[in-house]
Amino acid sequence: MSQQPPVRSTGSPLARPDASMSLLTNVMEHSLDDGYAEAAARRAEGLPRTLRAKLGLAAGLVLAAAVVTVGAAEARISAPVLAKEREDLIDRVEAQTAAVDELEQSVDTLREDVQERQRRALRTQGGDQGGLVGLLAGATEVQGPGVKLVVDDAKGTDQSGDGPRESSGFADTGRVRDRDMQRVVNGLWESGAEAVAINGQRLTALSAIRAAGDAILVDNRPLVPPYTVLAVGKANKLSTTFQDSVDGQYLHALQENFGIRFSISDERTVRLPAAPSLIVRTAEPMTPGAEQGSGPGTADTGKGTS
To answer: Which residues have C-beta within 8 Å of that of residue 41, sequence separation ≥ 6?
Structure first.
C-alpha cells in the first residue's frame, strides 16, 4: 500500500518565530501609551503652562481693576447726590424741631391762660373760700412755712429686684418704691399738710403715685431719687405729728431695717408750683339762691393721694 505524501498548505503566510512573544514585541515597538502621546502632541501645539497661567492672572487683575475703577467712578458721581440728600434731611429735621418748639410754646401759653382763668373763676365763684378751694385743688401756687422731707435709696442698692423686701411682699432691699411714697404723702396729709409736692410735681386730689418698672411715676411723670417732698403747713407741728404717726414710724422702720435714707427739716418758707393741669370731671352752673359748697355748682374731685 503506497504512502500518501503530506498535504502542504500554500495559501497562508508563514508564522513568525517570535509569535509566542507578541506582548513583549508590542511593548518594545510602542514604548509610550497612546494617551501620553496625544497629551505630548497637544502640549507641543499649544502654549506652555506657565505662560497660560500668567495670562489668566493678568486677565483677572485687569478685570478687578476695571471693577474698582467703575465703582470709584460711580461713588464719585453719587457723592454729591448723597450730600444733597443729607442736607435736605437735616433741613427737614431742623424745620420740624422748630415747629415742635413753637407748638410747645403755644401749649405753654394756652396752659397758663387756662390756669389764670381757673384761678379767676375760683376767686369769683368761690367767694370767701375761693383761695382755699384753689389751694386744695392745686390750681394756684402756694408759699408758706412747712417741712422738707428727702427720701433716698440705700447706699449700694442692688438693681436686680430681689431681696428680703421683695420676698416679703414689699419691694427690693434698699429701694424706695411707689407704695413707700404713697404712705409718706398720705401721712403728711393726715398730719396737717395743706399742699404737697414731690420733686416739683404738685399733688392734687386726683394725683396718683404709681410705678413703671423701677421708676416712680407721679401723674405719669417719672421721678428719680432722691425724692424731695415739700409740704406746706405748721412746720414744727407738722414735722412732729408726721414722725409720730404710723406712716412716720414706717419710714423709720425702712431706715433701720433696709438702710433707706431720709431726712426731715422745718422750713420757714417753701414754695410749691401750681399743678400743671387740672381735669374737671363734672360741673354744673350755679343757680340763684344755691347754698355755697352744695347743690349745683359743685365739682366732683375727691380727696387723698393713692
So the answer is: none
Helix (H) or strand (E) holding 228: strand 227-232
Q: What is the value of pTM for the model shown? A: 0.52
Render pLDDT for 75-123 as a digit per residue (tens, 0 to 9).
777 667 777 788 888 889 999 999 999 998 898 888 778 777 766 776 6
C-alpha cell at 32: 509610550
CA-CA distances (angstroms) from residue 89 to 76, 97, 108, 120, 146?
21, 12, 29, 46, 52
User: Grid coordinates standing for 77?
Assistant: 458721581
Residue with cell 414689699: 170
Give pLDDT tens digits for 134-156.
666 777 788 889 999 999 998 87
Alpha helices in the chain (DSSP H): 22-29, 34-45, 49-125, 130-137, 164-167, 178-190, 235-244, 246-258
Contact 267, 147 (CB under 8 A): yes
- Tell me the one-letter amino acid at 26: N
User: pLDDT (tens digit, 9 = 90+) per residue, 277-290?
Assistant: 666 666 666 666 55
Half-sphere exposure of 160 (CA within 13 A, CB side): 5
Cβ–Cβ < 8 Å for 141, 157:
no
CA distance 156 to 160: 12
* Contact between 196 and 185 (Cβ < 8 Å): yes
Q: How many residues does the chain have?
A: 306
- Sequence-ordered list of residues with C-beta below 8 angstroms from that of 245, at least 6 positions apart, any chain: 187, 190, 191
Pairing of strands 142-152, 209-212: unpaired
